[in-house]
């Protein structure tokens, strides 16, 4: 194992990126302009554009239409702003200063890239966790929902999401710098970087979200049975339960599909031998969650779809639509 492999935990013994070539003799890295590299950048560029456009639609919709000025939607706009910055900042930085190049040239720009990556990605995850808390009170405690979740509480949630993310990023960078300074006794810093940081920024929020959505699902089942038993409603309980299951499966399934493989791989770096190509692929899969969030948390609602249609068609420039009733 080379010194670079031992230090980073990655297996870099072969050409690992479509846009770079490494020399086993001179231990240098040079860019290539192959067809595969061009297609790779076009694909990632499209992901970035879709991410920016989708989240811009969400932001404009909530800001423009007064009907959407609610505490719940402030959380959604926080997610959209975070994911928009992922599309604007993290995507381009990760495209040009990839993990492959940063393993060879660990300069200041690579640390900046890592900082934005950690802060924005972690904030996006925390915002999704806050949305699950909001949904829990809306479904499980509807009578006290407006008093428990108001604009002030939501602003505190948003500030905490950003604040904790910045602290996690600072800890991550400090641990990384310490690893660069020390020669052999870096195990504690490696544990901090590859175990504690993922626990705080991913595993803990995931456990909280899974627990909350399970509670929501169970309460929704009880409410459906109560409606059927007390009101003799014609509601088909099987359809209600199926819809609730499908909604929660989409929310958590897509989230876990995007993020879990990356964080598992990130943690396993401690054992060494993680392929750079695998790690980078999983990193892009995780970042793609920022592109999917507008579809999951906004397109799912009919009033957002109506707002999007008005924006895309240009109707908002043809008259006074802020007070328009959205379905």
TrEMBL record:
It comes from the Eukaryota. Pfam families: 7tm_1. Residues 54-297 form the G-protein coupled receptors family 1 profile domain. Its main location: membrane. PROSITE patterns: G_PROTEIN_RECEP_F1_1 (PS00237), G_PROTEIN_RECEP_F1_2 (PS50262). The chain crosses the membrane at residues 39-63, 75-97, 153-175, 195-218, 248-272, 284-304. Keywords: Cell membrane, G-protein coupled receptor, Membrane, Receptor, Transducer, Transmembrane, Transmembrane helix. Signal peptide: none annotated. It is found in: Cell membrane. It is a multi-pass membrane protein. Belongs to the G-protein coupled receptor 1 family. This is G-protein coupled receptors family 1 profile domain-containing protein. It comes from Ameca splendens.
């Amino acid at each position: 194992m080379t010194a670079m492999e031992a230090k980073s935990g990655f297996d870099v013994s072969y050409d690992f990126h479509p846009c770079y070539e490494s020399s086993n003799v001179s231990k240098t890295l040079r860019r290539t302009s192959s067809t595969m590299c061009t297609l790779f950048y076009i694909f990632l560029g499209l992901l970035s554009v879709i991410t920016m456009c989708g989240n811009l639609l969400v932001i404009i919709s909530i800001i423009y239409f007064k009907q959407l000025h609610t505490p719940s939607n402030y959380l959604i706009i926080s997610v959209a702003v975070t994911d928009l910055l992922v599309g604007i900042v993290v995507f381009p930085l990760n495209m040009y200063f990839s993990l492959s190049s940063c393993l060879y040239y660990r300069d200041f720009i690579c640390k900046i890239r890592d900082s934005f990556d950690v802060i924005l990605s972690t904030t996006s995850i925390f915002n999704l966790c806050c949305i699950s808390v909001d949904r829990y009170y809306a479904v499980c405690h509807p009578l006290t929902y407006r008093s428990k979740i108001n604009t002030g509480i939501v602003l505190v949630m948003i500030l905490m999401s950003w604040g904790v993310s910045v602290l996690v990023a600072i800890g991550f960078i400090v641990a990384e710098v310490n690893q660069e300074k020390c020669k052999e006794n870096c195990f504690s810093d490696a544990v901090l970087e590859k175990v504690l940081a993922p626990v705080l920024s991913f595993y803990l929020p995931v456990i909280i979200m899974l627990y909350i959505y399970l509670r929501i699902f169970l309460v929704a089942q009880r409410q459906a049975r109560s409606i059927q038993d007390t009101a003799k409603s014609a509601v088909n309980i099987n359809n209600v339960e199926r819809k609730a299951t499908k909604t929660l499966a989409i929310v958590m399934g897509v989230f876990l599909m995007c993020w879990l493989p990356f964080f598992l791989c990130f943690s396993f770096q401690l054992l060494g031998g993680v392929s750079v190509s695998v790690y980078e692929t999983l990193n892009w899969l995780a970042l793609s969650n920022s592109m999917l969030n507008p579809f999951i948390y906004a397109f799912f609602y009919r009033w957002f779809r109506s707002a999007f249609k008005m924006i895309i068609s240009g109707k908002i420039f043809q008259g006074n639509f802020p007070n328009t009733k959205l379905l």
